[in-house]
Design goal:
Alpha-Beta Plaits; 4-stranded antiparallel beta sheet
C-alpha cells in the first residue's frame, strides 16, 4: 500500500461562513493536510483549496469526502485530483 495525494475544493454553505474559523476547524479535525489556501469564487463567496496525503486504499476519495462532510459550515466537497504517489 502507498499514499495518495488528494486536491480538494471545499465550498462553504454561504458567504457568511467565517473562512478563517472554518480553516482552523479543518486543520484541527483532518489529518494529513499539506497545504490550504482560500480561492475567491465570486459574489463574496470563497472556497478553500486543500492538498492532503492519505493512505492508498479502495474508496479513499469517498472516505476523504466523508471526513469533511462532518464539519459544520461546509456545503460541498469536490475532489479535483487524486493521484498515487510513486
Amino acid at each position: 500500500m502507498g499514499e495518495v495525494v488528494v486536491i480538494l475544493k471545499i465550498m462553504p454553505e454561504s458567504p457568511e461562513v467565517d473562512i478563517k474559523k472554518l480553516q482552523e476547524e479543518i486543520k484541527a479535525k483532518i489529518p494529513g493536510i499539506e497545504d490550504m489556501k482560500v480561492e475567491p469564487i465570486g459574489f463574496g463567496l470563497s472556497a478553500i483549496k486543500i492538498a492532503m496525503i492519505t493512505q492508498d486504499e479502495e474508496g479513499a476519495g469517498d472516505k476523504v469526502e466523508a471526513l469533511f462532510s462532518k464539519i459544520a459550515g461546509i456545503e460541498r466537497v469536490e475532489i479535483e485530483t487524486l493521484n498515487r504517489m510513486l
